[in-house]
Amino acid sequence: MTPEQRKKIGDTIRGIRQLRGMSQLELAERCNMHRSNLCGIEKGQRPVGWAGLQRIAQVLECEITITFNALPKKEGVTP
Predict the structure, then answer these.
(1) pLDDT tens across 36-74, in order?
(2) Are 18 and 38 in contact (CB under 8 A)?
(3) Residue from 5, 3, 7, 22 nearest 61 by CA
(4) φ and ψ at residue 51, rounded to 5 degrees
């Protein structure tokens, strides 16, 4: 995953978190991760794995696929 893709995913997570009225600390605690890790994910500085995305999506009550909508589509590749 490129830094630009990580940034787009992080921006999406931050936007949904803010729409839910949650702080970084609240989301991090509910996802069982440290706030600094979540901050790095939201800034696109820290990669997030599949399990982390699943936990975040579950806590934010959204489909995990919403985070992938931030990624550019490749020609010839269908989800």
Answers:
(1) 999 999 999 999 988 999 999 999 998 877 666 655 555
(2) no
(3) 22
(4) -65, -40
